Each structure stands twice: as C-alpha cells, then as structure tokens.
Amino acid sequence: MPKRRSHFKKKFLIFISFSGSLFLLSGCWDRWETNDIAIVTATAIDKKEDNQIELSLQIFIPRAFGMSSSPGGASGGGTGGELTFVISQKGVNMADAISKLQAELPRKIFWGQCKVFIFGEKIAKEGIQEHLDFLLRHPQPRERAYMFVSKGKAKHILELQSKLERSSAEAMRELVDLEIGLKVTLKDLNEMLTSEAQAAALPYLKTMTEKGKKKSFQFPKIFGSAVIKKDQMIGYISQRETRGILWLRDEIKGYTVTFEPEGKKGNVSLNPVTAKVDLIPQINGENWSMIVKIQTEGTVIQNNSSLDISKLSNLKVVEKAYQDGIRKRVEFVLVKVQNELRTDIVGFAKEFHRKYPKQWRKVENRWDEVFPEIKIKYDIKAHIRKEGYINKPMKLRIEEEKE
C-alpha cells in the first residue's frame, strides 16, 4: 500500500510539473510583431513659431528591405533614404505630438530601435530639459541612443539620403562610432547636465551639398560641437577645438595627427595608439590650478619630411613636435571654453569636488566665476612606436641618390 501511494504521488508531481511548463511555452502574450509596429530609427525635435514643437520621426519601411530600388527611393512625407520615410506633427510638448503622430499611423510607434535624437538649433538655444525628461521617463527610448544638435531644422537632417548607409540616421551613427567627433548618448547627456558643472557638448551637424554633373547631393556632416550650459545651447566650438576636447576625454582614436617638426621642412603624420589622461586639481590658498597630464603613444603612418626617424636624435625631434602639437590643441580649446564661453565642458568641477569637497562647496554656486580663473599647467609626454618607419623616407633616399 505505501508503495502504491508513493507511485501515485510521483505521477501527480510529474503531472503538475508538466502542466506548469505549458505556461512557460505559451510565449509572450504582450509581444509586438514586426507587422504591427512602426519602427522609429531617428527622431528630430524642432521649435515652431507658434510656441509649439515639431516632432519628426524617421520610420523604417520593412517591405522595402532587401528589394532593389531606383536611386533616390520613394516615400511619403519626405524621404530619409529608400528604406525610410519621415513623418511630422506639431504639439505643445512631445507627448502631445506623439499622440497626434500615432493617430496618423496604422501601426504602434516603437522606439526601441531609435538610435539617434537631434535637437534643432532653435530649440536647443531655448532649452532641452523638458524634452530630455520625457525621453528619460519614457520606457522605450534607449539610453544608448546618440544625441546631436543641428544647424537649422533637425527635420532636414532626417530627410537627407545616404550613399553608403540605409538612412541618414545610420550614417550619423556610423560617423560617431568612427570616433571622429564627440560620442554622447542620452545617458551621458543627462549625467553631464546633472553633474557639478551642469554643462555638455554635443556633436553639431550641418547639411553639406555635393555638386554633381546632373544633380546635387546633400548629406549630414559633423562640424564641431554645440556647447550646452544648464540646458541651453550657448555657443559652438569648431572641429579643431573639438579635437582638444577629445584629447582631454581620451577619445582621440579616430584622428590622424599631422605636424611639422620645428626647423624642418615637410610633415609627419601619425595615429595615436594609446593615451592616458589625468586631470590633477590643486588649491594653494586662493589660487586654483589644474595639471593636465597626458601620456600617449603614436605610430607614424607617413613621413614627408627629410628626417630619418630611424635615428634616435631625429626620433626625439619628432616626439617633441608631437608633444607640442597635443599641447596646442588642448590649450586652444581651453582658452575658448574658459575665456569666451566660460563653461566647464571639460570636467574640472568634478575633479575639484572629488579632491577638495570642502573648498568646492564654497564655490559651487559661483563656479562660472571660478572656472575662468583656473590656471592650467601641462605635463605632456609623447612616445612614438617603432612600427611604420623601418626604412628611410622616400624623399631622403632620393636626395641621397642624387648625391
């Protein structure tokens, strides 16, 4: 009898376990099928004259994927490339504009693949905090999406086509991933604007026109950075100045650095391979200063000078020129942000707060006055790796053959 009960109990437990597993195999009851959603790839936010905003969405066209299309593609409401179309609506805020956009679309708007957000310059100058709050509170937009500011209307950027990528949004994302400009995500932007300095810099987009034989072609390009203070755009730094910011953030991986060694004819170009950047704050009485310490290695990729840098003495000359070049780039942008913009987009406030919390609390409410007065000291050491210059430069070999 006990054996029969044990056998029955075992069968009952197996039945319960099997029944429970059926619930796990039933799938996600609230999942969204591709055919039911409008996939947003990029979003543009502009300011209208009637104190409303214009929200523009670049939406992926699933049926066009994998199909051959004629150049230029086709779409309704403006084109962002042959695989996307752009749709816009006005509203008193983002939530209002989205509800109006949803009323025009037969599919549910899906933000999970939106990897690019662009603020038009007009709305960026007025203030972006309200719109940033909405994006952070909404459950769908990814915090890893890239943030931009555009010269003129942001909507126009979405309407541009890309020769190589499927959409202008994808082209912008690839530009940022190549690290030729600042890389700022939604999460990064929020952290910067809520940090001690309450300042940020975003990639600044312009529309470029390439003239062809039959027709012109327009495309987006990164031209420096828009400077945001509190939540408003207060100025702009050039691409050259942005390179100084990239050095300070240790993000100078996508650039080739070209310089002319002092007293020598010709240029040397190299790629930075590694860089270690330290910002070291110092307070001596009423004097505040910052040591910018950079240690970097680079590889020569082209030598148009007459220097044979396989020789140690010439190598030292090139390394000195490399160091001086880095200092000029960093110094160039620090002069601009301290004296003209008076906005700490380089993270000095964070470093002083970390090392000198008591002194920081005394100046935090007037940091805009203190930041421009900080003295900068430089400690830059550059080293050149020995790859890429085993042979003498062609120019030098030709001169030797003539002799």
Overview in brief:
Belongs to the GerABKC lipoprotein family. This protein is α/β, with parallel strands linked by helices and 403 residues long. 35% of the residues lie in helices and 30% in strands.
Describe the structure.
With 403 residues, the protein is an alpha/beta fold. The protein has two domains: 34-237, no CATH class; 240-403, Nutrient germinant receptor protein C, domain 3 (GMP Synthetase, Chain A, domain 3, 2-Layer Sandwich). It is 35% helix and 30% strand. The protein has helices spanning 2-24, 94-104, 121-126, 129-137, 154-159, 168-177, 186-193, 239-248, 312-340, 348-355, 357-363, 367-370, 394-402; strands at residues 37-47, 53-60, 84-91, 108-110, 116-120, 146-150, 199-211, 216-229, 232-237, 257-259, 268-284, 287-303, 375-384. The strands form two sheets. Strands 1, 2, 3, 4, 5, 6, 7, 8 and 9 form a nine-stranded mixed sheet that branches. The chain has a four-stranded mixed sheet with strand order 10-11-12-13, with helices on both faces.
For the structure shown, list the relevant keywords:
403 residues, alpha/beta, GMP Synthetase, Chain A, domain 3, four-stranded mixed β-sheet, 30% strand
Classify the secondary structure makeup into a structural class: alpha/beta
- Level of helix content? 25-40%
Total number of distinct structural domains = 2
Largest sheet: 9 strands, mixed
Q: Compute the average pLDDT.
A: 85
Distance between the termini: 112 Å
Number of strands: 13
* Rg: 28 Å
Outline type: globular
SSE pattern, N- to C-terminal: HEEEHEEHHEHHHEEEHEEEHHHHEH
Number of helices: 13
Q: Residue ranges: pLDDT <50 for 5 or more in a row? A: 68-81
Q: Name the beta content range.
A: 25-35%
Domain Spore germination protein N-terminal: 30-206
GO biological process, one term: spore germination
Protein name: Ger(X)C family spore germination protein
Keywords: Germination, Lipoprotein, Membrane, Palmitate, Signal
